[in-house]
Amino acid sequence: MADENGAVRVLVVRHAGEQVLEQRHVTLAAGSTVADAIVAAGWLPVDPQTVIDAGVFNHARRLDTPLADGDRVEIYRPLRVDPKEARRIRATLKGRRATG
Predict the structure, then answer these.
(1) What is the pTM of this model?
(2) Strand 53-56 relative to strand 59-61: parallel, antiparallel, unpaired?
């Protein structure tokens, strides 16, 4: 819910390293979206063709999703390895250890 001035306050977070999160509190107009929060935090991609994966409270959301007061907007890092491929690699390594 917006405050008496019609503003919503949200927290925007992103990874800044392996174990480091950067976070910024931003105040936006009522009806603002996930994309508006990312812009207000100053975390736009350098390349406009870059796809931004984001969510609210650990649930993936589209960039045009409206925000509520107190929401936590999260910018997700791209995956380094496809999850299926990572499982295959782990299974292969585990099999080698068990037989060797």
Answers:
(1) 0.72
(2) antiparallel
